[in-house]
Design goal:
309 residues; mainly alpha; two-stranded antiparallel sheet
Length: 309
């Protein structure tokens, strides 16, 4: 039982990080009704900015404190993501107001390649490190309850806790603020939202800025675990089965979907993998999502999106 709980807990902690990435997709979908292929590139770009400025600031200023360097790098990276959001709205989205969803989808593909190329040009293409002081050593918990206890990775636990807090804050933002309600109105119908005085351009700047900050948080968490490299953008692909399970328009769905995907992939790797040759952790979530898609296409918490396609 202890071993099962250990695997389950590890999967749930990974699932919260998947949920954080998926949340960026939900934010953009709520505002524009389109799947944002650029979210993975935003995670990569934000992580690169954080890693490189954390390295450059001590060299430029002589600051020896890692905490101060990381805080300054975080502020600068956050400001950069705000500028990126404003540029995307001004140069791309403002000219595509009331266009078909397919047009906006292709625009996000273009943004993806632009951000990947710009990130490589500005920050380089090596593997960089983000060190925010998170503990790496695992600990043994519940020794008195289970024989041998449960091995818990403190880094994963802290990252999952931070991700859960961010998801909770954004969930309250959507439910309790006038801006959140405006975002839901824009997602339902752009023209109707404009007709009642909702400034569509401002809403898009806000939502892309928030999605950029979410991408920065996700980039820091994943960059701390894996190092900042261009393959980190592929982590965003794990958000696709999360969204299929939870729903493209639901913040709670992103949480539940992330937990399901994280737990199922770890359990499948341990208990099913040995019988099929192993290595199923990478593709099992997509199979699970496809099976779920046949039963409930809109997801557990999402609305039907056939009309958007």
């Amino acid at each position: 039982m202890g071993f099962f709980l250990e695997i389950l807990l590890g999967g749930l902690m990974a699932g919260m990080l998947y949920a954080l990435v998926a949340l960026g997709f939900v934010l953009i979908f709520k505002a524009s009704g389109v799947f944002n292929f650029a979210q993975g590139a935003m995670v990569l770009f934000a992580a690169l900015a954080m890693a490189r400025f954390a390295e450059w600031i001590p060299a430029w200023t002589g600051i020896q404190s890692r905490l101060l360097a990381n805080v300054a790098a975080f502020v600068i990276a956050g400001a950069i993501m705000f500028v990126v959001a404003w540029v995307i709205e001004y140069l791309v989205l403002r000219r595509l107001v009331n266009q078909e969803g397919a047009t906006l989808l292709m625009a996000t593909l273009g943004i993806t390649y632009f951000l990947e190329g710009l990130g490589q040009s500005l920050f380089g293409n090596s593997i960089y490190k983000i060190d925010i002081g998170m503990p790496k050593d695992p600990v043994i918990a519940f020794e008195s309850t289970f024989q041998g206890g449960i091995l818990v990775n403190k880094e994963d636990l802290i990252a999952a806790t931070i991700a859960a807090a961010l998801v909770a804050v954004l969930s309250l933002f959507f439910q309790k603020t006038s801006t959140g309600r405006a975002l839901r109105a824009v997602a339902d119908d752009h023209q109707a939202a404009q007709s009642v005085g909702i400034p569509l351009n401002q809403i898009w700047v806000i939502v892309w800025s928030v999605a950029g900050l979410v991408a920065l948080a996700a980039g820091i968490m994943w960059g701390t675990k894996l190092g900042v490299q261009f393959s980190i953008a592929l982590v965003a692909l794990k958000a696709l089965p999360v969204l299929i399970l939870g729903g493209f328009t639901s913040v709670p769905g992103a949480i539940v979907g992330g937990l399901i995907i994280g737990a199922s992939e770890k359990l499948a790797e341990v208990y099913i993998g040995p019988h099929v040759g192993g290595g199923i952790e990478g593709w099992f979530p997509y199979v699970l999502a496809l099976l779920f898609l046949l039963v409930r296409p809109e997801g557990l918490f999402g609305e039907k999106i056939i009309r958007r396609i």
